[in-house]
Predict the 3D structure of the following.
Amino acid sequence: MGTNSRKPLVVLDASWYMPQEKRNPLEEYQLPHMLPLEEAFAAAVSVLGIQNTDSVIIYDGKGLFSAPRVWWTFRIFGHNKVWVLNGGLPHWLKAGYEVEATTPENVTLRATAVRKAIKSIYHGQYVKQNMTDKTHQLLDARSKGRFDGVAPEPREGIKSGHIPESKCVPFTEGLHRLGKLDVPVYDGSWTEWATQPGNPIHTLATD
């Protein structure tokens, strides 16, 4: 009686799916995709019941897809006690570990509150300026085919190709574990770049 029985370890579902997969991530525990303002992030994790002293384990439904993005977001905002579950949910299921069969109603309410807390929009000015300043090497984390402009984008109406002078390093070949720690992420990503009028797009044919 009177003691705090709360265990400071959080397991976080970071699943996110491409449109053609026709899966509703909100129904499977959804997190928003864009990087929030610091204040919005603090509000969001508070809604989820996560405290600064907690250890956080993140997984996603594919094994290694969107969880690293959420891991990176936590680290951006100074929460370093965070890890990605090796193999994610597929490995967990294959190992025969227990899962919950239903989603409590308050999960949907929390996800809605989180979504309302995150309203930051970034328009890629830094990326455009870097094309002139060349202070950073821009890396593209998509597949080589999409980078080269020979494979279609998963979102309808968006051209494939890449930002000029960028290099292709698919997301499955992460840099953090190789000792590359200071790697900023272009939050708007290819979807934003390719849909902004006037932004240059290079392909294998134009390089």
Q: What stands out?
A: The chain has two domains: 9-117, 125-195. The longest strand covers residues 9-13.
